[in-house]
Amino acid sequence: EVHLVESGGGLVQPGGSLRLSCAASGFTFYSYAMHWVRQAPGKGLEYVSAISSNGGSTYYANSVKGRFTISRDNSKNMLYLQMGSLRAEDMAVYYCARVAHGSKYDYWGQGTLVTVSS
Amino acid sequence: QSALTQPRSVSGSPGQSVTISCTGTSSDVGGYNYVSWYQQHPGKAPKLMIYDVSERPSGVPDRFSGSKSGNTASLTISGLQAEDEADYYCCSYAGSHWVFGGGTKLTVL
Fold this sequence. Notes:
The complex is a heterodimer.
Chain A: E1 3-7, E2 10-12, E3 18-25, E4 33-39, E5 45-51, E6 58-60, E7 68-73, E8 78-83, E9 92-100, E10 104-108, E11 112-116
Parallel strand pairs in A: 2-11
Antiparallel strand pairs in A: 1-3, 3-8, 4-5, 4-9, 5-6, 7-8, 9-10, 9-11
Chain B: E1 9-12, E2 18-23, E3 35-40, E4 47-50, E5 64-69, E6 72-77, E7 86-93, E8 98-100, E9 104-108
Parallel strand pairs in B: 1-9
Antiparallel strand pairs in B: 2-6, 3-4, 3-7, 5-6, 7-8, 7-9
């Protein structure tokens, strides 16, 4: 059974940094692209970042480009999101999601909450 | 990277059908057959309901169907049931990035 478990969320001050992790199990992790999607409190879903199956290609939403870095360790079945220069508008639940056939988020984690506040 | 446009809310009575629209541009919805739809209940992670415009994952009832015409995709739910009450989001590939709709709250009366 596919499982995605995010961790690393918490309270951080504006301008601070945080690293999110996503532990994957139940599938051949190195065969799938992975994304981060976030949801601000009471708001809709927002694509954040994507990484190809081998980690060779990465993509970012304009809202986080230059501040966030996505990476993965296929030997450990782990996905990461390094977040820097955090702003109030980055406060959200961050989900990691598996992407199948390049077009569908077929499995999601339970999310980890990032709170940006002084 | 503008969000796709969805109605904020729709409603229907049990047994009825409702359709949720998702309007984008030729750079996203209209340019690719990579539109997907997600159902989200409060406090839960999203669940894939439709992918590649009209494909249904195993386990999703055939009451859920998808279609696309030009720059607008649609999700139709027939034979509404109480458990269908949730938020629904469309999503489209847009050439090296992905874009979601703002979400539609479905109320089952």
